[in-house]
Amino acid sequence: MQRILVSACLLGEQVRYDGSHKRSRHPILQQWVAENRVISICPELSGGMPVPRLPAEIASGEGGEKVLQRQTSVVDSSGADVSHTFIVGAQNALRIARLHEIHIAVLKEGSPSCGSHQVYDGSFKGHLVAGQGVTATLLRISGIFVFSEMEFNDAHNMLLHLEADGIASPIFHKP
Fold first, then answer.
1. Residue 13, CA distances (Å) to 21, 40, 138, 175 in order
2. Which terminus of the chain has fewer Cβ atoms in its 10 Å neighbourhood, N or C?
3. Environment class of residue 27 by beta-carbon count within 10 Å: exposed (0-12), middle (13-18) or buried (19+)?
4. Angle at CA 160, nearest 5°, toward 98 and 153?
5. What are phi and psi of 45, to 5 degrees?
6. Could you tell me the sign of the dihedral formed by the alpha carbons of 75, 80, 81, 86, in that order?
7. Is 5's pLDDT higher than 80?
8. Are 146 and 139 contacting, i.e. CB atoms less than 8 angstroms apart?
9. How deeply is 171 buried, as exposed, middle or buried, from its count of CB atoms within 10 A (0-12, 13-18, 19+)?
10. What is the value of pTM for the model shown?
């Protein structure tokens, strides 16, 4: 049975920077939970950040790839560079995905860790720009299919495809 990596906040865990959650009640997620397919992850907590914590954004909205390449930083609202914890959290998420042979992740859109299509622009003014968070980027470049919470149907179709083929994703590689 294929397992799916899911952002902990989407499962109702109070792990967001302000101690809240973003629980999704999507029927597909509920089905996956009932089938015991879901592996929960909060990369920011896994990287060592507390709850609550200051909000963080990728400087200049550059995206997770630039953070992983150390060409830009994740900074919190006080201006402190918290890139290291975001990178460690992304590495931990990848390690968990590999441990469970996960090929699909559904992550929280907009997050500097988990955003799969959009992240905040680094101004702390609520402006979203096209881009990926640090964890979403690392998972994608490692061959994992990454979806946002608005793409449960697409993620489920990918799951059905992988299980119908009875094979692992052809682009998933273990080092």
1. 6, 9, 23, 31
2. C
3. exposed
4. 95
5. -70, -40
6. negative
7. yes
8. yes
9. exposed
10. 0.93
